[in-house]
Recover the amino acids of this structure.
């Protein structure tokens, strides 16, 4: 899929059919994530692939409002932040966001649906992920991405707003 | 350009030739930025297009180590965060990062070079941008993107690292 088309037609997908997600598709998502830019090229990220039905169902309980999503999802990715790898203190969150956006776009380009489920900043989700995946103390669960083929494709939304654009000064 | 190709071949470009950047190319970058996902669909962003030579040269002084970049750049975008538009307090930074990554990918897909220059978290740059662009008090300068045609394309880097991948648990 063309890059601008992918950017302009990607939607957050929260309902999935039962078609499995291939290992090769997941690997492409992780390749895309790890090719994101990061401050000082620090790459302060780790990823947990979740593809066992037991762990996906357990995620449905660990994430307060995500039950249906993770019960339907055929796979998921947990993106984690390791601040020990930050080249500039405090910039690791931005690096993880770039990796996250690459995952969302690479999923859409492959015909997969995905949605960004925030974990960092939401203590019950952080604790749930930390326990479920037995994360080391220094690893921060950052965001979850349930994956699957969309039950139905959503129409593109055009969000450009000229009121948000300024020219050479505010 | 294919989406996965754009993600896998994008590099940070800091040296530009003198070919102008078209208004239509810049508009596509802003369309891409504003089609990023945001928490609660808050879209807490504003953009300043910088395409006057005077303002680009002034940016070279406002950004401590960016002189050559902004002197060479044919245009730039300043991405700003308006926390009053956040749907969930504190999530606006993540929203802006997604917009930023879309700008970088949409630039590369159009044959333009760009690089993410952090402003938020670096007080002298924040003050420089705030003064130069006369930003309102509630608007936070977040990141700058100098733009232009690359002096030379950089080879792709493959950054996938299997040591960062875990399976169903850490």
């Amino acid at each position: 899929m063309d890059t601008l088309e992918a950017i302009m037609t990607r939607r957050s997908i929260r309902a999935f059919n039962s078609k499995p997600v291939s290992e090769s598709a997941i690997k492409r998502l992780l390749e895309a994530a790890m090719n994101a830019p990061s401050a000082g090229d620090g790459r302060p990220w780790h990823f947990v692939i979740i593809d066992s039905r037991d762990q996906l169902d357990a995620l449905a309980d660990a994430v307060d409002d995500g039950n249906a999503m993770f019960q339907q999802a055929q796979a998921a990715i947990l993106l984690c932040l390791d601040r020990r790898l930050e080249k500039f203190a405090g910039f690791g969150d931005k690096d993880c966001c770039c990796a996250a956006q690459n995952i969302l776009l690479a999923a859409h380009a492959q015909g997969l649906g995905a949605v960004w489920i925030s974990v960092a900043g939401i203590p019950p989700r952080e604790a749930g992920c930390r326990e479920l995946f037995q994360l080391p103390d220094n690893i921060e669960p950052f965001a979850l991405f349930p994956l699957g083929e969309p039950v139905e494709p959503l129409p593109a939304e055009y969000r450009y707003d000229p009121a948000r654009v300024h020219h050479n000064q505010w």
